Every structure is written in C-alpha cells, then in structure tokens.
Amino acid sequence: MKRLAASFVLACRNNSFHKYIARDTALCCARSYRESMAKFSQMCTLDVWYASTELKQMMASAKEKETQRRIRKRLAKARAKTVLEYLYPKLVGTDGAIPKIKDNPPLIYHPRALEQKGHAEMLRTALAAYRESLPEQNRILLDRFKIMDVAHKVVGIGSVGTPCLIVLLMATETDSLFLQLKEARASVLEPYAGKSRYANHGQRVVIGCHLMQSASDLFLG
To answer: Whole-structure pTM over 0.70, yes or no?
Structure first.
C-alpha cells in the first residue's frame, strides 16, 4: 500500500503537479483502498474473487468532460497498439538476419556477463525450470517459440536494485513474444511472519499473484 501511494506521488512530481495535489492523490489512493476492503468484507467469496474495475466505471467517475475525453483518447491509442506493430520495432533491431533487442542505456542494455558461458548456461537452466512451472497447455504453447536474445532492463520502483531481464522469443519472423524475468527476494514480512513455506521466493510471488488476480497472464510461472 505504501509503495502504491508512493508511486502516485512520484507520478504527480513527474508531471509537475503541486505538492498539495500529490498529497491529496496519495490520500485518495489510501481512502479508496480502505473503502474497497470494507466493501469486500460484505461480499460473497466468489464475488470478491472476480471483482474488477471496469472501464465504464472509470469513465463514470471522471466528472469533467475534458478528463473523459483524455481517457477515451488514451484508451483508443492503447487498443490500437500491438506487440508486432508498436512494441517490436521500438525494442528490436537486427544483427544480420537475427532479431536482437536494441540497447537503450541505461534502461535496456546487454551486459558482457550475459555472453559468458556460465551465465548463458545458468539462464538456460532457469528457463527450463520456468517452463516446467507452467501448466501443460501453456508449456506446449511456449515451445512454439525460440529464444533469440536476452538483455537487462531497468524496471519500476519495487524492483530497484534487483536483476531484471527481458527475453525475445520468436515463433516465426513475424510472430514475437517478450518475457520478463525478475529476481524475487525474501519478503519484508519474514522477520515478523516467519520464513516462506515455498521452495523459493519466485514461487511465493507467483502464487501470491494468482491469489490476487482472477485471471493472470498465461505465461506467469
């Protein structure tokens, strides 16, 4: 909750909003969380599980016409984007005939360590273990893709200081898939709640995501 509120404050600062607006935004975020939890406590179990925020609700909550117009514009722009037409050209170039993730330091880059034999073998082992963590139908789908390139990527506030990689996979020369690999460390609650009962912290995080999401990304594993 603290991290979510902090993200709203940083977003306000990045958009040059007044500090009072940032404060009100953080308070609104916390209030919405508190009120939602109170509402969920009165709902049936399956209703809570499938609870979601609908776009129509977001539009209705925006009282000003200009705000509604901006939301509609952003939605139309997001719907028009596809991985192949929008994300792929931004992230991928070619090294001869081989697709390769573009360096964009300091956000995306290829460290020399990834080219060393030991690191490459460790990555292959990790990806093989990841594959086995998926349901069988998703493993079959993943097997249609071949790994083409791996690069480091700097990500959000909650992952600062932890390794994060993006992996480019291709099924055909026009059929791409990006996966993100992130390090999972011990929970900050361990000193108070005890050690995790799962085999590793990655498993703990993924199961936590599945518990919080009625429908998760099919490659989350």
So the answer is: yes
